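Please, structure for the following, as C-alpha cells.
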Amino acid sequence: MKKSLMLILGILLISGVLAVGFLFKTFNFSFDVTEPITVQHYDFIAFTNQPCSNFEGAYTNFDNSLNEIDTAFPGDSRRLCFKFISQSPNPINITMVTIGNWSNLLQNVSIVNPSPPTLNNPTYGNIDFTVKSNVNGTFNGSIEFRRG
C-alpha cells in the first residue's frame, strides 16, 4: 500500500512539474528613454510686467556650455525668460534653481517656475533680478532645470 501511494505521489509530482509549461519562445526588447523637455531662452529684457509668452518669436535653444547673453548695467532690473516645450502628453513638473552666489552682483532675485508643460502646450518661467548699483564685473551664474 505504501509503495503504491508513493508511486502515485511520484507520478503526480512529475506531472505537476511538466504541467508548468515548456518555454518555446522569448520576447527580448529594448527602448530608449529620452529627455522629453526642450528648454529655450530669451535674452534679457528690461523688466516689465509682461508675461514671457509675449515674446514668442525670440526664443532660442541653448546647450550646457556658457551662454553669452545681453549686457546689463548697474541698477538695471531685468527678466530672463525660459520656454519649456514637452514631447510628452503627460504633465511634467519643472523647478528652476539658481546655482552659485548670485548675491555678489544681483539683488531682488525672483524665480517664477513654469506650470507643467504637455505636448503642444509650452509653458514659460522667468527669473527677475536687479543688478546692484555699486558693482562692475562679469556675472557667471547657472540655473538648473529639474524634473519632478
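The chain has one helix and seven strands. Strands lie at 37-46, 60-61, 77-86, 94-99, 106-112, 123-131, 142-147.
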